[in-house]
Structure formats: C-alpha cells, structure tokens
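User: Show me a protein chain along with its predicted structure.
Assistant: Here is one chain, sequence first, then structure tokens.
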Amino acid sequence: MRTVRWLTLIAAGLALALAVGTAVAQDPSNPYYYAPLVPPAPDADYDPSETAILSRLPDPPAAVPGVAEEPPMPLTIEQQLAELQRQVDELKNPKPTPPAPAKFPNLTVNGVFQADAVLFNQDAANLATFGPIENGADFRRARLSAKGSVNPTTNYFFQMDFAFFGRPTFTDVWVEWTDIPVLGNVRAGQWKQPFSLEVVSSFRYTTFMERSLLFQPFTPFRHIAIGFYDHSEDLNTTWAASFMRTGQDQYGGSISTDGGNGFAGRITHLPYYDECSDGRAYWHIGGAYYLNSPPRDTVRFRTIPEIFVGENGAGPVGTSGQAVPGALNGTPFFVDTLPITGVNAVHTFGLESLTVLGPFSLQAEAMAAVVDQQANPTAVLGGFYAQAGYFLTGEHRPYDRAAGAIDRVKPFEDFFWVNTEGGRYFGTGAWEVAARISYLDLTDANINGGQITDITGGVNWYMNAYTKAVFNYVHSWTDYRSTGFSEANAFGFRVQVDF
C-alpha cells in the first residue's frame, strides 16, 4: 500500500513538472524559448533548397545576461588570404561614384591672346603699288568668352574680341537647343557659318598665322543666322546648314531691303579613320555651298597676303589732349575687285580634303565663286591652297569627329627646363614644320581684281596643349589690276596662349 502511494506521488510530480516546463518553453519572453518548426501545409509549395530551409529556422536566442558569448572561430589561412585579395581588388577597382547632378545655369570662362611681330620686304614694283608697308607688332586677337547651359538641352556662348577691328567686337554670340528631332541641334545668333574646313576649325588650331588666300574673298565666316547641325551615330559623317544675313558691321548688324540674305551648307565624311590608334591616321573629305544675295546688290572680293599687322591711328582729340583710337592702319589688301554693283547673287562652291598619316598631314581646299550680274556676263572667280605638315617629335594633327574640324594638338611631352641637384632637365614640347601654296584669281569678264600666289613656310613649337610659338615666312607674287606684277616678303612671329 505504501509503495502504491509513493508511485502515485512520483507520477503526479512528473505530470506537474511536464506541464510547467511546457508552459515556460512556449513563453516568448523566456530567453530559452524556441518556436516550433511549422511544417508546410499539405497543399503549399515546398522548396527543399538550403536557402529556403534556413529562412524557416527561428532566430537564435538573445544573449543571456551575465553569460559570456563564445568567441568566433578564427579564420583559416585560406580565408584570410581570400579576404585580403578581396580588399586589394576593391582598391584596384573602386566602385564608381555616381556623378553629382548638373546645376543650371552653369558657366565656363575661356580666353586667348595672340601677340605678333611682323617684318616686310618689298621690291620696287610692290612699293610703287602699295606704298611702304610698315613693320610692327600688335595683338592679333585678345578674347574672353563665357559658355555653358541653362538647362540640359539649351546651351549658350558669348565671346568678345578686344584686339580685332572695333575693339571690342562681337565674335560668337549664340544660343542652341540640342536633341531636336530630325534636325539634331538648332542654333540662333552669330557664329562661323558652315563652309570650309579652315572656317569651322578654330584659329587656335590652324597651322599658319593666317588662313589661306581663299578665306577673306569667298567664305561667309561670321554672320547672324539660324541653322542646324548634326552627325551620324558612327561619327563618320557630319552635316550643317544655316540661313543668314550676309551683311556684317563687326557687331552683328545688317540692314538692307534689297538683298542681304544667304544660305550655307556643308557635309563631311571620313572614308577612313583608324579607331585602334585613336585617329592617328584618317582621311577627311567635304563639300560646301554658299549662296549670297548681297546687300543692295553690291559685292566685293579682296584679301591680304596671308599675314597682318596694324595699329589704330589717332582719332579726335578733346581738351584733355588724349586722342581716342581712330582708323586702323596696317597691311593692305594685295588683290581687290573694288565694289561690284548690279549683282543678283554669288554662288560659291567649295571642296576640302585632309589626310593624316601619323606625324604627316596633307590639307587642301578649292573654291569657285559664280557671280551672277544683272548687266554684265556671269563671272567665275576661284582659287585653291594645299599645305603639308610634319611633326618632328611624332605627334599628329587631331580631328573633332562631331564637328568635322581640326582639333587641339597635344604634345607627348610638355616643354620645361629646370636645374636640380642631379643636373639640368628639360622637355621639348612638340615641333612641327609646314609649307603651303595658295593661289587666287579675281579677274574674269568685267571684273578685274588681280591674281596672287603665296608660298608660306612655317615652324610651330607647341610648348604644351595650350601654349605655342609660331614662325612664318611668306613670299607673295601679285598681279594687281593695272599696276602689274610685284613681289613682297614677310616674316612673322607669334606667341599664343589659350585657356
């Protein structure tokens, strides 16, 4: 009987302990609480993968106060090496930082100046025709510009020249809208019109001190206009066109009821471009057309002999005794048709080519102006130039594929000259030699402007991508109107900095 009683008490105690233990284990506030695994419902999708099984395990218990956690197992040598390699890879290839969002409007300021010195030598016939051409020095250009964007698709440019005629003078002043369907980019204002490789390429990057004999008489250059431009997706073809006022007063102004309107268009193509060398070899070709319905039916063709130097004469003098700048004196035009009246239109056609093979370049253009006259026969005036250049230090003449234009020369090594404890060290910069022949004929039908042939030799020293020194020698043969044949020589030196 006593045994049965003890067995009953023990069974009751075990039942009580089991009930209490179950209640405590199912209490979530208990640090030793474990949620039971809930098997998926019979009709649920069952994923036996390791990731799915781990996702169904309960969270580990929280740390018990006063009980120290076991230290983590030390990494093996292989794991340490793998972690070290990961850190090295992150240092070598850091994750790119996302660019900061553009702020509008934004602004970039640029500038350039060219300081020239020129000497002349004339034969007797040239002296008799043009008088003594004086030597001198001047600032050929001194410009400041501001450019930027007012929103992601609207750009602007504003540039003034403090050395050109007028001092200061408007050069490029325009606004443009990008990503326009069909047209590409639309521009309004004043800029260099799309005609000729020499025109669309910046003077900063030209080989010689002045553009060729064709530039002044035939190309539209800067006019107030509205136009568009674009390029193919592969950057091998460009095109541009604009409608303009063909008059120009150096400030963008042009008024005339009779005439004064024009059109220009240009297309270029790269039959060959060496992608592997990033353009150290390429062939550029292009063609252009310029229609000029001249203001008041009057037009004039003339040019200087591929070099210029001048100064402003004294203007009016007030009670202070100080004269304001007056008329500009300087290198005269060597051929000149004088004003031609009764002209309905001038149609000018241009062809251009530029070949670059490493350090060697060959560039040429030809133009013809068809003068449609009211009371006189149609006249055709024309000319050409061809030039070659070679970089003694191995650089090449870069190309702007989006614009179809010459780009900035970048020396392999900048010029420097320093003394150190180890001796004297210097860098050479880039050196280029070049030669050009130009021919212009402004005589046909009733028009008698004369003929001129120039040969120019040059040496260019690019001290860095933004600074260069230029030496030019120009020999000019001129047959000017009725005065006959004459010759002249000019020696020019220039220092240029742009930023």
